[in-house]
Structures are given as structure tokens and as C-alpha cells.
Amino acid sequence: MKMQIHLREAREADLTELGELKFRASVAWGDFVEELQNLPDARQVSQEHLPHIIVAELEGTIAGFVTILPGDDASQAELEDLFVAPSLWRNGVGAQLLAAAEARAVVLGAARMHVVANERARLFYEAAGYRLIGMVQTDFASAPELAKSLRPVQ
């Protein structure tokens, strides 16, 4: 039975809950837990990002969220965050959020989506059509940099 996920725009009242979900999802694999516990940003979602966040709800509870930011040029969007409550991993929440993010990016005029992902999420993105374009150094480790063409360039 498919879960009934409701997608909506983020609200200011969501920020604390989104930050906590971000932290829970970030430490769920057990990687860099101590570093994340000492990083204030690990539990925060920027209020400046609020207009760019889509929230997934399941039965009135936040199940995940995605943040889509304009890229360095108008033809590209940046997938800044995609977090799902660990108890809901592998249930389609992330795929629905990713599809919504891509649709939003196209509406905003982007022809390509860019993301720097956790290595553990690489297969998720590749299954959705993203291709590895390089590796970048993050605060904690080297991470895959991926991109996807969202529509043919006209």
C-alpha cells in the first residue's frame, strides 16, 4: 500500500522541526556523529531558504523536505537539502520530494539540477537520472557531485 504523502510549501513555524529532522537524518548512518553534534548548522534550516523549501507530510507529520535554490546561472538549480525521516527511508518520500524539486526548478527556468550528495545517497540520485560530474571536498569528506538535465536546452 502506497503512503499518502502530501507536499506543501514550508512555513516559518516548521523551521525548528525541519532542523531536527535534518539532524536525525544526518546522523542516522552513524557517520561523523560527533562532528555533526558540534556543528550548530547541522540542526538548523535557514529562514532565508524558507521560500525554496517543499515539505512532505504523512498524516499531518513532517516526513521530509527538499530545498531548491537558484544556481550560479539561471539555467541551473541547486538541490541544497533533501532529508527524509530515517523511519521512512525507502518508502518513496525522497523520490516524491526529488520529483517536486525538479518540477519546481523547471518552472523557475532551470534546465539542469546540481547536487553535492552524501556518498550513501549517490545511488538514489543515479537511479533518478543524475550523473556523476566530479567529487568535491566537504567539511567532513569527499562527496559526489551530480547533475541531471531537466529538459532539452532550447
Explain this structure.
It is a single chain. By secondary structure, the chain is of the alpha+beta class. The protein has a single domain (5-149), classed as Aminopeptidase, CATH 3.40.630. It is 25% helix and 32% strand. The chain contains 4 helices and 7 strands, in the order βααβββαβαββ. It has helices at 15-27, 33-37, 93-107, 122-127; strands at 5-9, 53-58, 61-70, 76-84, 112-116, 131-137, 142-149. Strands 1-2-3-4-5-7-6 form a 7-stranded mixed β-sheet. A hairpin with a 2-residue loop joins strand 2 and strand 3 (61-70). The radius of gyration is 15 Å and the shape is globular.
Structure characteristics:
single chain; 154 residues; alpha+beta; Aminopeptidase; 7-stranded mixed beta sheet; 7 strands; 25% helix; globular; acyltransferase activity, transferring groups other than amino-acyl groups; Acyl_CoA_acyltransferase
CATH topology: Aminopeptidase
Under CATH at level 1, the class stands as Alpha Beta
What is the count of distinct domains?
1
CATH superfamily: Gcn5-related N-acetyltransferase (GNAT)
Give the CA-based shape: globular
Report the β-strand fraction as a percent range. 25-35%
Q: Give the termini separation.
A: 40 Å
Quick summary:
Helix content is 25%, strand content 32%. The protein is of the alpha+beta class and 154 residues long. Strand 2 and strand 3 form a beta hairpin.
